[in-house]
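Researcher: I'd like a candidate sequence for this fold, 230 residues long. If you have to choose between options at a position, lean toward the conservative one.
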């Protein structure tokens, strides 16, 4: 059953829409719809029509792609207060990647036919959207550089720290709720290589491995590895 959300409150608190004039928030709220998505559900696939923008109200969404030989690459994890699906929404072209619900999610959707005219009429909203796109481009460029220039330990440490920054604090430490296979897909390494490196760090008591997650116990040690480079 869909959870009830105050759409105006969600929009006012959202980084993309916060600070917009009340009449803009009201228009967005009138256009927006909420959807409940179960964990493991494909929200859209690569090549699907890009007809909606999504904002995450709760849960986590994985953005990834699959190669013809079965390999996976994870480009991003979208958490509460973030948006996805903006590229195909703006250019009207097919989706460039797959979006999968990693957990049970509540999403807010706005159709392209409603959103694009609003962007054209509200320069402030257009500028905020450009900021989001620039952030995504910077992140993608950094991922490509890391795969080319950095060794496995450095890439893994950087990725764990990045994921920890985006995760909820835990009493046990900085917990990253993601599988080792998915971590490997982010850094471009096999699950086996990723697990071997994590096991070494676990012996040093820098991390603790759990089913479906990793707890970072020694952030300074990982930060030192991330700063050293390949």
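Model: Candidate sequence:
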């Amino acid at each position: 059953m869909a959870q009830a959300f105050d759409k105006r409150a969600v929009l006012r608190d959202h980084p993309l829409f916060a600070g917009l004039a009340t009449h803009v928030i009201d228009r967005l709220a009138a256009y927006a719809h909420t959807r409940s998505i179960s964990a493991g559900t494909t929200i859209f696939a690569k090549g699907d029509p890009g007809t909606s923008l999504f904002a995450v109200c709760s849960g986590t969404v994985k953005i990834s792609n699959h190669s013809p030989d079965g390999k996976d690459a994870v480009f991003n994890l979208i958490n509460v207060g973030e948006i996805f699906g903006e590229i195909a929404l703006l250019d009207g072209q097919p989706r460039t990647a797959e979006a999968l619900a990693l957990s049970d999610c509540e999403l807010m959707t706005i159709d392209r036919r409603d959103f694009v005219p609003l962007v054209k009429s509200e320069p402030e909203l257009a500028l905020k959207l450009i900021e989001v796109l620039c952030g995504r481009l910077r992140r993608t460029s950094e991922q490509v550089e890391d795969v080319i220039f950095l060794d496995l330990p450095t890439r893994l440490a950087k990725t764990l720290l990045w994921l920890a920054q985006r995760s909820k604090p835990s009493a046990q430490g900085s917990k990253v709720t993601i599988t080792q296979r998915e971590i490997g897909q982010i850094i471009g390494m096999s699950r086996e290589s990723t697990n071997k490196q994590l096991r070494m760090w676990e012996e040093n008591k820098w991390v603790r491995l759990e089913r479906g997650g990793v707890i970072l116990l020694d952030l300074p040690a990982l930060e030192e590895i991330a700063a050293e480079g390949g």
